[in-house]
Specification:
single chain
């Protein structure tokens, strides 16, 4: 294991050249310096022993390269996400789909809140993916009670959404009309 004095000597010897090496891969000098700080922090925290200076140097450069590669991969993912987000923001169809989904979700939660307490609990647990048996165990009620209350709740929700389905159909039809070439 490297002691504090040895680490300082290694740091003073290789820091600048490792930052320069990292700069081949990364554009920001601050980012390169952060990478090298991380390399030295890991060197200090791990119990590495190096038989000679060549092994130590090889470790430092490989660790720097690997950290730079990880940053590049991470940046690629961020860039891809940003491009997808920009595309989605510019696409009117996706925009309309998101608006409809959010509105339906809002109205569903609003409708669920109009249910009695027990029915609301059952529907919320069901929406979380629990099976009827699990809901019954969770709420400490009989399975048949869950089935009955769930059926009544769905009937109530279908009534609430009967009018909404007409509105959604109308919005979708108008959106499609706007997109049809004349």
């Amino acid at each position: 294991m490297i002691n504090a004095n040895e680490l300082k000597i290694v740091f003073d010897t290789y820091y600048e050249s490792l930052v320069t090496y990292a700069n081949r891969f990364l554009y920001s000098n601050d980012e390169c310096e952060d990478v090298i700080q991380d390399v030295f922090a890991e060197l200090w925290q791990t119990e590495n022993s190096f038989p000679d200076e060549i092994s130590l140097k090889s470790y430092l450069y490989k660790a720097t390269r690997n950290k730079c590669l990880n940053i590049i991969k991470h940046n690629k993912v961020k860039d891809k996400y940003a491009a997808t987000s920009i595309h989605q923001l510019n696409d009117d169809n996706i925009f309309m789909q998101h608006v409809l989904e959010d509105e339906i979700s809002r109205q569903l939660h609003e409708a669920i809140n109009t249910l009695s307490t027990r029915k609301k609990e059952i529907i919320i647990l069901s929406l979380k993916g629990l099976k009827n048996k699990e809901v019954a165990e969770n709420l400490n009620i009989k399975l048949q009670t869950v089935k009955t209350l769930k059926s009544q709740a769905y009937k109530h929700l279908r009534k609430k959404f009967k009018d909404l389905s007409i509105i959604i159909s109308f919005l979708i039809a108008n959106k499609m009309k706007l997109e049809l070439p004349l």
